[in-house]
Amino acid sequence: MPFGIQPIHIVIIVVIALIIFGPKSLPEVGRWIGRSMSELRKGSQEMTTALREGMNEAQADEQKNTIAKPAPGQSVPTNNTAANKFCTKCGAPNPSDALFCNKCGNSFQVQS
């Protein structure tokens, strides 16, 4: 049994409840307790759902903010010279045949 309650304990609780509340009002008390438990369960499920949605939104916003963007105010040459290819993200010079930046790992666009 849950919480270490044995059948004899349940019988004692029911007898005490009958003495306190009486046989006529005991079903009403039982209904009230049942409704309270269902409202509590429903409220906790709503809170859990809202918390999960908030966490998902925060993760989505964080992923949007981590997309590679060039640093503001940084002048980066966009043309490819014969000797070097410059990264548009960090500005580091790279060999002309490089596919990725040696410094930051940013991929270079393939020109057709």
Question: Could you explain how this protein is built, in words?
Answer:
The protein is mostly helical. It has 2 domains: 2-65, no CATH class; 70-112. 53% of the residues lie in helices and 5% in strands. The protein contains 1 helix and 2 strands; from the N terminus they run αββ. It has one helix at residues 7-65; strands at 84-86, 93-95. Strands 1-2 form a two-stranded antiparallel ribbon.
Give me a quick take on this structure.
By secondary structure, the protein is mainly alpha-helical.
Summarize the SSE layout with pairings.
Elements: H1 7-65, E1 84-86, E2 93-95
Antiparallel strand pairs: 1-2
Integer average pLDDT:
80
Strand order of the largest sheet: 1-2
Total of helices: 1
How would a textbook summarize the main sheet?
2 strands, antiparallel
Cα separation of the termini: 73 Å
State the helicity in percent bands: 40-55%
Radius of gyration using CA atoms only: 34 Å
The percentage of residues in β strands lies in 5-15%
Order of helices and strands: HEE
Pick out its properties:
2 strands, 112 residues, mainly alpha
